[in-house]
Specification:
Catalyzes an early step in the biosynthesis of tetrapyrroles. Binds two molecules of 5-aminolevulinate per subunit, each at a distinct site, and catalyzes their condensation to form porphobilinogen. The chain is α/β, with parallel strands linked by helices. Helix content is 37%, strand content 15%. The chain binds ligand PBG.
Length: 330
């Protein structure tokens, strides 16, 4: 392996760091706009976009500004958009009914974006109930207040059908219910949507870094998600979730959050033959923006470094709220 000059003073690794051109040439990891997927929020009943305080630069879109964000993403070379719907507060109920209403905000937004950009973006929808339930959980509850796995699966099957009908190319189940990928695949196939793909949130950890997302979707979660999202202490468990999702028919798999779980991302990437995505979540975004605002960190460099690390760890695609900005910069 090592050459005659394998040791100092012959060996000087700094030779390959001497100029920007040299560093560019030998870079092992390159971010490309097509790696990136933009998560976007659309809120019902507003006429101006509403800024999300804990995510400076991110807004709850109106239907119109969402269309524009999709067009901007296309022109920047971003590959996909992941849509989250924020319904009017009064429309939330225990079953998350508006999540399966063909005229619910998420379905309306899917149709809007599909008609605006067609197939120029991969249009994805978060498939979960938490944006639509009044209790903020990702599923329906049993009478004693626990999240009912199997009853929730029926809701997810219905959601998959309405989202695909509305124009989603890809549905992304994020609720961590057991068996969700299987029932969604069957529901899609049964409804004539065999070509609609599933990006499974495969390893999804219960995380404090989702904090700003609650503001983004106006959710007031009662309790926590620890009975369905994974415990951050566990790594092997993700390989089990992975095996199940693949067996159930996942076309692509995701690890989430990204930065505190890069080891999981590496484990998953090394053991699959399907595309692997990672989600740089709201709290990861907020940390960098907040530190930069205080002048404690070089914002642009930190963003690129974080994204490069996620790709280096094994992500082929990265969901990031900076997608359009970064794609333009690359
Ligand atoms: C569930 C969902 C969440 C996120 C994406 N899909 C919230 C959660 O699981 O608690 C979080 C994304 C982020 O924090 O940026 N609908």
């Amino acid at each position: 392996m090592s050459s005659t000059y394998g040791r100092f003073p012959g060996a000087r690794p700094r030779r390959l760091r001497t100029t920007p051109a040299m560093r560019r040439m030998v870079a092992e990891t390159r971010l490309h706009p097509a790696d990136l997927i933009l998560p976007a929020f659309v809120r019902e009943g507003i006429s101006e976009p509403v800024p999300i305080g804990s995510m400076p630069g991110v807004v709850q879109h109106t239907r119109d500004t969402l269309r524009k964000a999709a067009v901007d993403a296309v022109s920047a070379g971003v590959s996909g958009i992941m849509l989250f719907g924020v319904p009017e507060e009064a429309k939330k109920d225990a079953a998350g009914t508006v999540g399966t209403d063909p005229d619910g905000i998420l379905q309306v937004a899917l149709r809007d974006v599909r008609s605006e950009v067609g197939d120029d973006l991969v249009i994805m929808s978060d498939l979960c109930l938490d944006e639509f339930t009044d209790h903020g959980h990702c599923g329906v509850l049993t009478p004693d207040g626990r999240v009912d796995n199997d009853a929730t699966l029926e809701r997810y099957a219905e959601m998959a059908r309405v989202q695909a009908d509305a124009g989603a190319h890809t549905v992304a189940p994020s609720g961590m219910m057991d068996g969700q990928v299987r029932v969604i695949r069957e529901a899609l196939d049964g409804a004539g949507h065999a070509d609609v793909s599933i990006l499974a949130y495969t390893a999804k950890y219960a995380s404090a870094f989702y904090g700003p997302f609650r503001e983004a979707v106006g959710s007031s979660l009662q309790g926590d998600r620890k009975t369905y999202q994974q415990d951050g202490a566990n790594a092997r468990e993700s390989l089990r979730e992975l095996a199940l999702d693949l067996e159930e028919g996942a076309d692509m798999v995701m690890v989430k959050p990204a930065m505190p779980y890069l080891d999981i991302l590496r484990d998953v990437a090394e053991s699959v033959d399907v595309p692997v995505a990672a989600y740089q979540i709201s709290g990861e975004y907020a940390m960098i923006e907040a530190a930069a605002e205080k002048g404690w960190i070089d914002r642009d460099a930190a963003i690129l470094e974080a994204l490069t690390g996620i790709k280096r760890a094994g992500a082929q695609n990265i969901l990031t709220y900076w997608a359009t900005e970064v794609a333009r910069r690359l």
